[in-house]
Write a structure and sequence with these properties.
Distance between the termini: 94 Å
Helix content: 55-70%
Number of strands: 2
Strand order of the largest sheet: 1-2
Mean pLDDT: 88
Length: 285
């Protein structure tokens, strides 16, 4: 706008009010006299009625003083309230023009922000393959959408974020490899441990947890083997069945299972059954 807006010169005439209590000294003397009259008044059971009456009279005087104060305050405020209403009316007249302009500027700013967001998303999509990350993995920093933020600054910010994401991917890949090899060395399924790794668990913690699980499994296996060995001391084979000589109960059971596994897994299963004297035979093809 070529010419700066300005208001015409105007002055506001006002006079600071002077509030004077006529005969103030006489009023003060009377108030002090009443106060002194009842100062130190003894309150006892015998003077209870008189004390309540005196209190009521003193409160009545106090209320009269306060009522007069409120009356003067109201009259004192009336000129200012009229002045404030006039100024407020003038401000509202200006607001009728300010508000539409303000709304338009906010709408324009949002349009510009959306355009900057579009450019940032395009830049993310362009840079993502270089870091082997997905564009959706990049969380947009609100400062990238500021009008004052340069493209160089945005590019550097995106690069930093993508570098961090790539490092997380690489660390996870390395961790998965470590966990997989460690679990397979103990001939256990690594899937559950890998799930924990993906949820943020530390690799070293998981390696220790695998050690603990293997130790626990070994203890359970030893317990089962001991129980099986003890049971065999009072078992005999009769007509293809295993009989408990203590109870006469048939303790062997025959079930048909279809097992799908890899060759190494089959060998592990066979070794387990052999070590536990579990009889088996191949059926079908």
């Amino acid at each position: 706008m070529a010419n700066e807006l300005s208001l015409p010169e105007y002055k506001i005439d006002y006079q600071l009010p002077v509030i004077t209590i006529n005969n103030f000294d006489q009023l003060k003397t009377a108030v002090e006299a009443y106060a002194n009259k009842y100062q130190g008044m003894a309150v006892t059971a015998s003077t209870e009625k008189e004390s309540k009456s005196s209190r009521a009279e003193l409160r009545k005087l106090k209320q009269a003083l306060d009522d007069k104060r409120k009356e003067i305050k109201k009259k004192y405020a009336e000129p200012y309230q009229r002045f404030a209403a006039q100024i407020k009316d003038l401000e509202m007249t200006l607001d009728s023009s300010i508000n539409p302009i303000d709304a338009g500027l906010k709408e324009l700013e949002e349009q510009q922000r959306q355009l900057r967001l579009k450019h940032v998303n395009a830049l993310i999509a362009e840079m993502a393959p270089n870091y082997h990350v997905e564009p959706g993995e990049v969380e947009i920093d609100p400062t990238w959408l500021n009008k004052t933020t340069t493209k160089k600054k945005v590019t550097e910010g995106i690069a930093d974020v993508m570098g961090y994401i790539k490092k997380q991917h690489d660390d996870l890949k390395t961790g998965i490899s470590t966990i997989t090899k460690y679990a397979q060395a103990y001939q256990i399924d690594p899937a559950g441990w890998i799930d924990q790794l993906k949820q943020g668990q530390d690799v070293n913690y998981l390696l220790q947890a695998i050690d603990n699980q293997v130790k626990l499994n070994k203890q359970k296996q030893q317990t089962l083997e001991a129980q099986a060995a003890e049971a065999q001391t009072h078992q005999v084979q009769q007509k293809g069945k295993t009989i408990d000589t203590n109870t006469g109960e048939v303790v062997s059971h025959s079930v048909s299972l279809k097992i799908t596994a890899t060759i190494p897994q089959m060998k592990l299963l066979r070794a387990f059954m052999d070590s536990n004297q579990i009889r088996y035979q191949r059926v079908g093809v």
